[in-house]
Automatic annotation (TrEMBL):
PANTHER family: GLYCOSIDASE (PTHR34106). The keyword Signal applies. It comes from Folsomia candida. This is Beta-1,4-mannooligosaccharide phosphorylase. Residues 1-24 form the signal peptide.
Amino acid sequence: MSKIPHVLSLALVYAIFCASSISGQDESWQLGPFVKQDAVNPIMGPLNYTTFFCPIRQEAVNWEKKDIFNPGAILKDGKVHILYRAEDDVGLYNGTSRIGLAISMDGVNFQRYPLPVFYPQNDSFAIHEWEGGCEDPRIVEFNSTYVMTYTGYDGDLARLMVATSTDLITWTKHGSVFAEAEGGQFVEMWSKSGSIVTRVSEKGKQEAVRLNGVFWMYWGETSIFAATSDDLVNWIPVTDPNGTENEFNLTAIFEPREGKFDSDIVEPGPPAILTERGIVFVYNSRNLDPLSGGDSNLPRGTYSAGQVLLNATNPIQVLSRLENYFFTPEKDYEVIGQVNNVVFLQGLVSFNGSWYLYYGTADSKIALAIIE
Ligand SMILES: *[C@@H]1O[C@H](CO)[C@@H](O)[C@H](O)[C@H]1NC(C)=O
Ligand SMILES: *[C@@H]1O[C@H](CO)[C@@H](O)[C@H](O)[C@H]1NC(C)=O
Ligand SMILES: *[C@@H]1O[C@H](CO)[C@@H](O)[C@H](O)[C@H]1NC(C)=O
Ligand SMILES: *[C@@H]1O[C@H](CO)[C@@H](O)[C@H](O)[C@H]1NC(C)=O
Ligand SMILES: *[C@@H]1O[C@H](CO)[C@@H](O)[C@H](O)[C@H]1NC(C)=O
Ligand SMILES: *[C@@H]1O[C@H](CO)[C@@H](O)[C@H](O)[C@H]1NC(C)=O
Ligand SMILES: *[C@@H]1O[C@H](CO)[C@@H](O)[C@H](O)[C@H]1NC(C)=O
Ligand SMILES: *[C@@H]1O[C@H](CO)[C@@H](O)[C@H](O)[C@H]1NC(C)=O
């Protein structure tokens, strides 16, 4: 039998336990509480001895020497697979990003592949990926194919890109998720962080799910936007004539809030999850300066995480949003690093009768939290 009913009941018990927020709104739909695994965290950090022959530089680099962070995660063959962003320590941008793979039987101890599985090379996508690199992978499965959204960074513009694989090792790049939409006009727009809506299947796999006949994705950074797709590769942004993002008329699903932890930026976390209550969407967010519109209890620039519930029959409609963050930097390795005060949530796996959450810490390392 699937372990999921147990997971959901765990979440439900907790949810009922703290069903109302201070404001009195019903927050019982949220996932949690997530307990940071202090005994093992951070579970992964940079390595200074693994080398990779970069096909563009035509020389060897220590590809995960500077920092590793922002992991996507998925279950395959009963094992947790993490795809993580790794930065070398050379070049114009203080580190080109490539994507590494690590596998675990217990969700805690990971064995890494010695070489990155995804990286900029001499192909038609290098124009969008060099030399900032390939960043922030998020993974879902559908029909035995893995679909990875990631950010291609040319050093100037971030672009939301997509690739597919059947084994998580060999990948086919497809370029910008918006390459086909509206004559390609959205390709030249700043875009990143694609969270595809999934459900947990009877076998415990997290699979992309069609709602109203199409796949859905949340993406963005200034606001949360949405997009739909028939094939998980080509996506069409949701727009309307009164869209808030003037240049492209994008429909903002929700935006930063003044005075709160999410006052500056809102950015998707792991793949969103369809539940009986609606779509539970974990998002990352950045705080403004407390003196100019930020949360006064958090330093400027702090990345914390929130949760939103969206309507499964109208996925652009927000039904509920946590008043406060449920996850924020506290530990040394979350507070100090390449970028201070950052927890960045990207991987959420239904595993061992619970939810395992993998996240980047201070843009430097990777840590784990579990619903216990
Ligand atoms: C590599 O890292 C190890 C452990 O962190 C450290 O002791 C060693 O000095 C480093 N070597 C180089 C060449 O940076
Ligand atoms: C890749 O491109 C670089 C820069 O254009 C070039 O120096 C190198 O020879 C190319 N490598 C291959 C294998 O084509
Ligand atoms: C790279 O790091 C150096 C030293 O910390 C800094 O001065 C420079 O601005 C950084 N460059 C970029 C592009 O971030
Ligand atoms: C599953 O979780 C339990 C605690 O609920 C733990 O004792 C056990 O070691 C875990 N199993 C695996 C395979 O991680
Ligand atoms: C699943 O993949 C198979 C083989 O590629 C294909 O024939 C089939 O149409 C796919 N099914 C769906 C629902 O996409
Ligand atoms: C945005 O909406 C305005 C007003 O309806 C329209 O004139 C304009 O063409 C739209 N822009 C795009 C990029 O669709
Ligand atoms: C756009 O805004 C105008 C003015 O507020 C309103 O009359 C119109 O119904 C809106 N259109 C849509 C599609 O929301
Ligand atoms: C969800 O969306 C459907 C379709 O638009 C609507 O009928 C329903 O009232 C919405 N649910 C809530 C709780 O607003």
